[in-house]
Amino acid sequence: MNFITLMVFLGLGLLAVFGEPLFIIIGGAAFACFHFVLHISPATVFTDFYRLTSMPVFVAIPLFIFSGYLLADSRVPEKMLRLTNALLGWLPGGLPLVALIGCSIFTAFTGASAITIVAIGTLLYPAFMKDNYPEHFTLGLLTTCGSLGTLFMPCLPLILYGVIASQQTPLNVEDMFVAGLIPGVLLVILMWIYTLFFGAKHPRPGSKRQGFKWSEVIAATMDIAWELPLPFFIIGGILGGLFSAPEAASIAAAYVLIVEMFINRDMDVRKLIDVIRRSMIMNGSILIIVGMALGLTDAFVTLSVPEKIFSLICSHVTSKYTFLLMLNIFLLFVGMMMDIFSACAIVVPIIVPIAARYNIDPVHLGIVFLANLELGFITPPVGMSLFISSIKFNKSFPTILKSVIPFFIVLVIGLILITYIPDLSLYLLKFTSHKGLIDPTDLL
What whole-number distance in Å separates Cα of residue 104 and Cα of residue 111? Predict the structure, then answer.
């Protein structure tokens, strides 16, 4: 590496420190690699944007983002919580379970913990206070819940990992959708178990568990009757092989638009224009980051960066399980420094070929990767959920950070189980066809 090349990379590092947009840093690194190291035209990077157009699954990203923003700006959060509370609120730990399931479903469709905390947290916080839950418990639970849906279809990070990893190994997004189901449910159950132990250890004077009322269940179901079939239709359609992820995204976007604008009339033209604007800003941000990341991936592959890193690791690590432990530690640090979309763009191209040398299934690797990055939402200094909760609930950052520590420990336990029990991620894939979709008759 000559002096000019070194100065270019140092300059990019300084730009990153001073908060320059990520796509500029990634793109600049890709241009520098091609021009100064490989002596190839930097214009090669732009061909990767054309490659995005040849990926049908990438169409799903803007459509799912649009659907999520539509749902967030309608009355769906309020109606969804009413139904889950009617169905589950009577159970021990019923209100925390309502929060866990409601936030998971909402994050799965919006793809953003921030939106979930704002939309769902606003509705649940008063309910927890009314039921005499300690404030630190409430803040920790609602802050952590925002990221729980990351492993459930059709959450955006699952699609992004599938798109980027598929450039280096045979993989389809539908497999990621299937693989995330059991680990996602496991994390929700572990969190609920903790809330039950907390409730037993800290009784709440004056709190009363609500009774189960069929009248409320029926009323809540009727209130959300038009939106209720959507997750079952999308999930069932993908698992049953009726349609692919892009087709599911198209159906979801069209259905939500028709229901919220013309049937429920929760959306008018002015709000719709604002939803389109905000959702496409998000989509454009992801598109340009992924495009630049594909260019940098090409440079890494040409320079044999993964092979060199693998040779270095192999000289010290021979066990697959030791490698997984090191990978978890590394990804926890990644989650501390990057948001989940940036991490997908930068880290996935490096770890996928290295993990393959240790015979780690790329789908299992993806679930481990995303489970790690879930923790990044509640880990400083970048933990977005921490900042959003601090602003939303008007609490100091240290207060929010202290409140999430018990839930962080629970998620770490779940991460260890997901990492070292691959069947949690891969079991349902045993029932898939050659197209990566489940044949429902195989489950009978």
Answer: 10
Helix residue spans in 54-180 (DSSP H): 60-72, 76-88, 94-110, 113-130, 135-145, 156-165, 173-179
Q: In terms of Cα–Cα distance, which of 117, 121, 126, 127 is closest to 88?
A: 127
What DSSP character marks residue 241? T
Bond prior to 381 in cis (omega within 30° of 0): yes
Q: Which residue has the tokens 């001073």?
A: 18
Cα–Cα dist 77/73, whole Å: 9
Residue 438, classed as helix, strand or coil, is strand
User: What one-letter code names the amino acid at 12?
Assistant: L
Please give the torsion angle defined by the CA atoms of residues 410, 416, 422 and 427, in that order, rounded to the nearest 10 degrees. -10
DSSP state of 224: T
Instruction: Please classify residue 53 by burial: count the beta carbons closer than 10 Å to its beta carbon, then call 0-12 exposed, 13-18 middle and 19+ buried.
Output: exposed
Buried b (16+ CB within 10 A) or exposed e, 270-286: eeeeebeeebeebbeeb
Is the separation of the CB atoms in 103 and 149 below 8 Å? yes
Mean pLDDT score of the chain: 80
- Token representation of residue 249: 């995204």
Per the structure block, which two tokens stand in for 333?
Answer: 């640090």
Distance between CA 4 and CA 10 in Å, rounded?
10
Residue 432's SS3 state is strand
pLDDT for 394-417, tens place per residue?
888 888 888 889 999 999 999 999
> pLDDT by residue (tens digit) across 246-255?
888 888 889 9
User: Do 68 and 105 contact (CB within 8 A), yes or no?
Assistant: no
Side chain identity at residue 384, one-letter code: M
Q: Report helix, strand or coil for 72.
A: helix
Structure tokens at 390: 């601090």
Quick one: DSSP state of residue 212?
P
| 11-59 confidence digits (pLDDT tens) | 777 776 666 676 777 777 777 777 777 777 767 667 766 666 666 667 7
Q: How many helices (H) and strands (E) does the chain have?
A: 22, 0
